[in-house]
Hints:
Among the domains are: 29-128, Orthogonal Bundle (Endonuclease III, domain 1), CATH 1.10.340; 234-289, Arc Repressor Mutant, subunit A, CATH 1.10.10. The protein contains 15 helices and 3 strands. It has helices spanning 4-17, 30-39, 45-58, 62-66, 70-77, 84-99, 108-112, 119-128, 139-150, 162-171, 176-192, 211-214, 234-246, 254-258, 264-276; strands at 252-253, 281-284, 287-289.
Amino acid sequence: MASHALHRPALNWYSANARDLPWRRPGVDGWAVLVSEVMLQQTPVPRVLGPYDAWLKRWPTPAALAADSPGEAVRMWGRLGYPRRALRLHAAAQRCVDDHGGRVPSGRADLEALPGVGPYTAAAVAAFAYRQRQAVLDTNVRRVLARVLDGLEYERPGAATGAEIRRAEALLPGRAETAATWSVAVMELGALICTAKSPACDVCPLAGSCAWKLAGRPGWTGKPRRGQTYAGTDRQARGRLLERLRETSGPVRAAALEAVWKDPDQRTRALDSLVADGLVESLSRTRYRLPR
Length: 292
């Protein structure tokens, strides 16, 4: 299938249907896009909007965040989940100040050298902030391409393969500005139309070219795709304990944390892992606080 057969339908659909999201508005800089991409990792857009706005109001530049403590970054992260992302953003802000004059760099190599920034995030910042010709392969994009080109219900499990990346690069329009818009258009298509559970094939602009739809939407034949459990897990215990620590600017005694999570073995394990991850400082076995 010629790639240009996919470009115009997706671009036209995006022009008419794209959500008005703050990190997509004209004039956003690399920092605003980087913050959005880190917050959106494993987190849906509606949960990100409020924290994103509050974060950029408090820290509109990398220098503003770098001048504050990592503990304040963890506090502001709130209930977004996976709070190590807050520490990585703080470390990335510091690197931007130290090595890039307080700006988020535009080159892929420099972006990937920032703490917590991998190939996907680097490609997204380069494409969406700096309008470069980059293949941006998140779960939504991979699912759209798996259906349209491979006839598979879902993308293959695991990280994007080299073959997937090369194919996505070959699909990019030649003009950098158009390629950047195409990348976000396919992402939006996967988020709103070509969804994992309820794809709306009847209104999809790529339906006429989609191998999966043309084959009758065959079911997934790979290993069962299981969702992650949360209730009662160490991850939930970590979240509850961290939430209690965020509520105060000073140390919290262990007795106060006992009321948050009753299971002593799980509570100790969760606290130890928070300390090991740098999210919490242990002043003693009886007092804890966010890092400074």
